[in-house]
Amino acid sequence: EKRPAPVSSSCKVQGGMCKRARRIDKAVSMRLFVGSLPLVIDATNIEHTLGGGVDLLHWICDKNTGLWYGSVFLQMTYAREAKRVVEQAHTASGIKIGNRKLRINFAPYSEADAW
Question: N or C: where does the chain have the smaller number of CB atoms within 10 Å of the terminal CB?
Answer without folding.
Answer: N
